[in-house]
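To: structure subgroup
Subject: Chain for Friday's discussion

All,

I'm putting the inputs and outputs inline so they're searchable in the archive.
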Amino acid sequence: MIALTIFAIMPFLLLIILIIFLKLPTIKVMPLVWLITLLIVLSIWHLNPLLISASFVKGALIAIEIMLIIFSAIWLIAILQEKQKIKTLHTLLVSISPDARIQAIIIAWLFGSLIEGIAGFGTPAALAAPLLVSLGFNPILAVITSLVANSTAVSFGAAGTPILFGLGKLGFENDLLKQVYQTTAIFHFIGSIIIPILIAYFVVSFKEKNEKIKRILEIVPFAILAWLSFSVPYIFIALFIGPELPSIIGGLVGLIITSTAAHYRILVPKKILSFDKKIKEQKPKFKSVITAVFPYFTIIFLLLISRTIPQIKEILSNITLEWKNILSTEINYQFLPLYTPSFYIIIASIICILLFNVKSSEIKITLAKTINKIKKPLLTLVFALALVQLILVSSNNTLNMPGIPIVIAESLANIFKNSYIFIAPLIGIFGAFLAGSNTLSNFLFGTVQSQTADSLNLPKTIILALQVVGGAIGNMIAVHNILAANATVGLVNKEGVIIRRIILVALIYALIVSLSAFFIIHFS
């Protein structure tokens, strides 16, 4: 079992060593690690070569699906830039507050949470990071803050998909699921207090060489207000209504409260910290504001009705493009062309073209800029998703051996035993790091976590909640989420830098929720 565990963790060790420590570009690392993993599953797990080929095809198709979201987000930004609408949006955000710390909290944490609640699957960072860059943020800082912020909302993202599908499809009873998502909301409520504070910390670290502590401390009251304005409605909806709306309502209420507070300088620091050297606190014209924010409200509106109105959701999600039994294997792929977030962002882009009278020459320019930005990230993403799929299909071997994810999870459980509550969220993080999705992390490890809880005589509700929370935290460091966010701001080969900056935040968040679980188990 020890030898099997070593082979199982080798792909992840290679990723960590090559990207984080050796600082090699992911465009080189991903194909190499995929190839090494291919040799491992062929020699140790004896996978069928056809199954391996099919897994690569599925990974490439998922990569293209994700890149469609990124393409549409970048194209929308390019159109707005071409027609000078980004300047209006910039003026609007500065009019709310010219302070970069507050801008990051409002855009990355609250706007991002609202988008996560509606769409999920990497969309928040794809929309938030370019907005921050337009305000003068360093692209790396924009990606870091957008990824760190995209955590708490993720467990109830895409109208509750991680709960309803990630765990719901595993056969758990509805009463247990209800207890799990309510406990999840409690853990997130406790742990998420660090997120707006750390967002401000990253901004200060990039901006200030002196007086860092002072600049951080003075923003803490506003950061706490932002946390409360999001997390109070978030936990209330989760406890009393259901898993579909906590992030949507939390993000919307939080946006209204914090934007109002910032505009009227409530709990706002006296000294402004800005990346824009030429701060002009001018009030944008009402008509200009409406046209500038119209694309985003169009996206929110379309995503909201497609996710929350059952009849519309059923119609849209029943229109599918399928490839069953890829290369005569049991691997299937399904694409929902009218349900994917990219469809609604493209609609918003087309409306912008008509509304802003975009010329055909300008369309060509924006498309060329967009394609140029996504070429290299797409290649990396193909191998990243192919690697994920290769690991996932390792359980379908001819030797009836457990797959790579199961081997790693069971080994951790055997090693840590009664300290497992500190490992459960790490497994969730690992799943999201691997698959780039809280939903897939829950689907991968939900059953394992439940079985481990039973064998160690730990409360199943709490262990499953820790899995769900961990899966949300893991979105911060999921390689393909980082690649997607990087693509929207034109960053190349900076994944290692970003992971090194973020990973400690993920571990602190996980420790807070684990300690919360420990006290609930032993003192309630």
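Points worth raising on Friday:
The chain has 23 helices and two strands.
The first strand starts at residue 321 and ends at 323.

D.
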